[in-house]
Amino acid sequence: MKNIDAKTQGELEAAAFRRLVEHLRERTDVQNIDLMNLAGFCRNCLSNWLKEAADERGVALSKEESRTHVYGMPYEEWKERHQREASSAQLADFEKTKPGH
Length: 101
Fold this sequence. Notes:
This is DUF1244 domain-containing protein. Pfam families: DUF1244. This protein has about 100 residues and is mostly helical. About 70% of the residues lie in helices and about 0% in strands. It has helices spanning about 5-25, 30-40, 45-55, 65-70, 75-80, 90-95.
């Protein structure tokens, strides 16, 4: 991407982020713990990163607002509809690989 200007690069990165969020909204079968175990981040991480970016720019965005944006609904509603109890194997994997968040 060395031949792409900064504005276009930002637009492309923003489009990729929107696509990732859309994909994760559609894939409710993929649990956050699975994402954490395999990739080291989850939907909550994305919403935290979004909030941190807003904070850095002085943009008012609450934690709940950033989560609602990433999940496509209030976080508690998503958990009620889609989150399953983590298995002992998932929890064991998480303990081995969890990043420092």
